[in-house]
TrEMBL record:
InterPro entries: GlmS/AgaS_SIS, GlmS/FrlB_SIS, SIS_dom, SIS_dom_sf. Gene3D superfamilies: Glucose-6-phosphate isomerase like protein, domain 1. The lineage of its organism: Bacteria, Bacillati, Actinomycetota, Actinomycetes, Micrococcales. It comes from the Bacteria. Keywords: Repeat. Residues 34-171 form the SIS domain. This is SIS domain-containing protein. The keyword Repeat applies. PROSITE patterns: SIS.
Length: 301
């Protein structure tokens, strides 16, 4: 490949990140795919690794609190799936992650499995009982953005949510200028409540992967139980969704910055992704090929 045709650093992540309003809208319209997810009343587990695990946490909270059935979320390597579940949903962009493949293979013939997969040609497609593929949301960047949120958009739409507000919020976030205070901050702690806890964890992961930044993440009410000790001038505490009463004032008293908005939490994640990308580029890093990471974790037997 010539230098002229090679992508600029982070070109894939930048384009994939910006495409999210479109991919969410497509996921919201996939009625057949949504109907193949577990039916209302089914008792299920949702499994994944890394980013997919965090999306599983958000889906589990939304599904169970919405009255659709008991729903547990597990890291695939630590999943307790022999609990009489009616189905197990495996979420994976590549469909090649070793821990997910091993778990699904062990469930064959015992528990119905549904895969939500980015790569339609992956080995997981033939292992699960039902494969829902989202190739339009698959990515080339190692640092994942749109597949995760598009899968969550599919899940939210399947639960009867209208994603119009989230899509509009994400479109505005992509068009807005970034605050240089966020791009230049020393440290971030991301917080969430309910379904946005998983998104807070994912925001922290994106910042670590893309820009090698010091980030942490917690449920919002846990922040006062120790983590607030690191709040200080030049550091950011970033809330996803509605903040607990008094938390903004507690952070302000430390001299740290409290970041929050009325955006849909999924759009707030897009904003954090943009900050992670900007921080990576400011450091001369390429999140399309981040240090020590590959697109999928495939372990030797």
């Amino acid at each position: 490949m010539s230098l002229q045709s090679a992508p600029a650093p982070a070109a894939h992540m930048a384009a994939e990140l910006a495409s999210q309003p479109d991919t969410w809208a497509r996921a919201a319209d996939l009625r057949d795919e949504q109907s193949r997810l577990p039916a209302r009343g089914a008792r299920i587990a949702v499994v994944g690794c890394g980013t997919s695990w965090f999306m599983a946490q958000s889906y589990a909270w939304l599904r169970e609190t919405g009255g659709h059935g008991e729903t547990d979320a597990f890291a695939a390597s630590e999943a307790f799936v022999d609990r009489g579940y009616d189905a197990v949903v495996a979420l994976t962009r590549s469909g090649t992650t070793t821990e997910v493949l091993q778990l699904v293979e062990g469930l064959r013939g015992r528990v119905p499995t549904i895969g939500v997969i980015g790569d339609a040609g992956s080995p997981l497609v033939d292992l699960v009982d039902e494969a829902i593929t989202l190739p339009f949301a698959d990515e080339q960047s190692v640092v994942q953005t749109r597949f995760a949120t598009t899968a969550l958009a599919l899940f939210r739409a399947s639960l009867g949510e209208d994603l119009g507000g989230a899509i509009a919020d994400a479109s505005s976030v992509i068009a807005d200028d970034l605050d240089p205070v966020l791009v230049n901050a020393e440290q971030f702690t991301f917080l969430g409540r309910g379904w946005s806890v998983g998104l807070a964890h994912e925001a922290a992961l994106k910042m670590r992967e893309a820009s090698q930044s010091w980030t942490e993440s917690y449920p919002s009410m846990e922040y006062r139980h120790g983590p607030i000790a690191i709040a200080a001038p030049g550091r950011v505490t970033w809330q996803f969704g509605h903040a607990p009463d008094g938390l903004a004032a507690d952070v302000a008293a430390t001299g740290g910055r409290f970041e929050a908005s009325a955006l849909d939490p999924m759009a707030e994640l897009v904003r954090a992704q943009r900050v992670a990308l900007a921080r990576a580029q400011a450091k001369g890093l390429d999140p399309d090929q981040p240090r020590n990471l590959t697109r999928s974790v495939v372990l030797e037997a």
